[in-house]
Amino acid sequence: MTSLPNANWNYPTAMRFGVGRIKEIADACRSVGISRPLVVTDPGLAGLPMVTDMIARAAEEGIEAGLFSAIKPNPVGQNIDAGVIAYREGNHDGVIAFGGGSGLDAGKTIALMVGQSRPLWDFEDVGDNWTRADADAIPPIIAVPTTSGTGSEVGRATVITNQDTHRKLILFHPKLMPSLVICDPELVAGLPPHITAGTGMDALAHCFEAYCAPSYHPMADGIAMEGMRLIQTWLPRAVADGSDLEARSHMMSAAAMGATAFQKGLGAIHSLSHPVGAIYDTHHGLTNAVFMPYVMNFNRSAIEDRIDRLAAYLGHKNPGFNSVFDWVMELRSSFDVPNTATDLGVEAERAEEISVLAEADPSTGSNPIPVGAAEMRQMLDAALEGRL
Questions:
Q1: Which residues have CB under 8 Å from 217's CB, separation 6+?
Q2: Phi/psi-derived region of residue 112, left when phi > 0, alpha when psi is between -120 and 50, beta in every other case
């Protein structure tokens, strides 16, 4: 039998990685000073054994956990407000953020807000807004990912939708980095193929855009390249057989690597994906996958040399931009990713609105080619029409 990964990591935070390690939840809580955690997850997971068994096991070991699950697939500000009320009423002293991107981001944001007097949107990732927060009032966070895509378990930011403005806003604070992460591949083994594919493409978008961002960060570049190699090798296997714990393990690593790498920056894939997700409530990873080739083509002149190196590292025959582009297109096709933004439900009459929102997205500043609303419209129109 193949030996499965099992290790304790401290990069970028403390991580307990390996099959079955969710059983350590009570010890994990004690190690970061939590005795009454609020488990934040999504409604689809709240009643499943992976959550109920964890809470019961923790209780057997003296850790009494509450549960909050009133969050949308793309969490909104009202979800956070309700979670803060639940936290305070339950007299909790820490958060277990459990789930995919929605559960992780909502849990981390609730932890951010339980001790603040300013409104949520005051902490948008613009300038030094994060310094407005009372850092001492942010309780410990344990993150438990159940998908392999967002990588929010190793991030210092969250994405929450402002329902009033239809904008997905990135919120940042250094203490949003979880104090401890439990990565247990058994928790993702039951994901259906389409969710495995969508979250895996999200991890690929994180690695790819971080690698292509123009700032100097060779450590992030190396992490992103290896993340893409893992995705190339293991994502098709994870989609084909969700019980393949070796593939699940490596995809959990790749997701964390993507989020670690994108401290370097992201780009127009995410800039376009965020407003589309906010307006149409589309799956974030799937939306990234739709926009990926259109943004790649737009940025080609600025990234081609870099992509040549990536293609060689990935072991492609005739390595170059075209081989990487073809690989992305093959993944999209094999996973039944819609080819156009129109297929996602995006309406041409809202293209100008989306382009303006995309220009304002924090990811835009690190796109390899400087872009504004006009360039966003160019990429969006190509995606709507399927022009590659």
A1: 263, 264
A2: alpha
Domain boundaries, the chain: 7-187, 192-385
Q: Same topology for domains 7-187 and 192-385, yes or no?
A: no
Query: Is the separation of the CB atoms in 104 and 41 below 8 Å?
Result: no
Is-contact 206 261, C-beta < 8 A?
A: yes
Instruction: Choose among 167, 164, 169, 115: nearest CA to 139.
Output: 115
Could you tell me the pLDDT band of residue 112, with boundaries at 50, 70 and 90? very high
Report residue 149 as tokens.
């895509």
Give 265: exposed, middle or buried? Use CB within 10 Å, 0-12, 13-18, 19+. Answer: buried
Q: What is the pLDDT of residues 26-69, one digit of tens each?
A: 999 999 999 999 999 999 999 999 999 999 999 999 999 999 99
Per DSSP, the three-state class of 282 is coil
CA dihedral 158, 287, 168, 143 (to 10 degrees): -20
**Contact status, residue 87 vs residue 61, Cβ threshold 8 Å:** no
Homologous superfamily (CATH) of 192-385 is Dehydroquinate synthase-like - alpha domain (1.20.1090.10)
Q: Is the pTM of this model over 0.85?
A: yes
Rounded Cα distance, 193 and 359, in Å: 33
Q: Are 113 and 120 in contact (CB under 8 A)?
A: yes
Nearest to 199 by CA among 255, 280, 159, 245: 255
The model's pLDDT over 83-98, given as tens digits with 9 standing for 90+, comes to 999 999 999 999 999 9
Class for domain 7-187, per CATH? alpha beta
